[in-house]
Design brief:
SDR family NAD(P)-dependent oxidoreductase, SDR_oxidoreductase, 7 helices, alpha/beta
Length: 274
Amino acid sequence: MKKTILITGASSGIGKETTLFFAKNNWTVIATMISIDLADDLLTIPNVCCYELDVTSTESIESAKDKILNEHKIINVVLNNAGLGYRSFVELSEDNKIDNIVNVNWLGVVKVCRAFIPVFREQNFGQFITISSIAGLVNLPLGSFYHSTKQAVESFSECMSYELLDFNISVSTVQFGNAPTSFQANVTKCKATKIDSYNRLMDKVTAILHKKTKKNTNLTPIITKTLFNIAENPNKNFKRYTIGFDANFMSFIRRLLGYKVFNSLIRKSVLGHF
């Protein structure tokens, strides 16, 4: 029987590439997005069904869920992919932008999982895969908001996994570095200020991230293939998957060096401070 995956944030970036990969490999893909107007060419792709779903809205999730279950009797996997970035200094951060990233990156995952746990429980099987980030494992400059939401996703997913063991529901998170998608270009950043130190740091961090993104030319297909393998082979126990050289290297170095030395390394390489 053909398997079915629901993907949030499927209209662009990793979400869209994963949608296309699964559809090509004979999965039915429930591609969800904040507005159906963003579906574009996905509406014509075989094995892809598009639905409007705003992960920040319980009402939107429930409405989409009703429509989806009316047309798809079984869902094998829910992939929490929807996410956004916010690069700002704590002092200059704005309430609406903080609320937005928390509502999408963390509470969006919570609300989608909460909605589909009963579906998986009644089926007595299912799998939640959540796109986290290397930002969920290590802390880097100007990541106060993005990193904290990803670390929240890691903790939430691991805690939730214990609750779901008796129902044959698998939970995993996936971390990777900067994939060559539109994500970095769409990251919200605070404006230039009169504080020279802040402006220099913002420029330096932004340049580093864009440089890393351009280098990772082969990362996106590796991510989509890995997500496919995870979906095809659910792990009973909670598992974190780390994809790509950058993410694996950062994770390894952080564990190897310990907090103090790793922190010193970041200060020296990014800030020029020992």
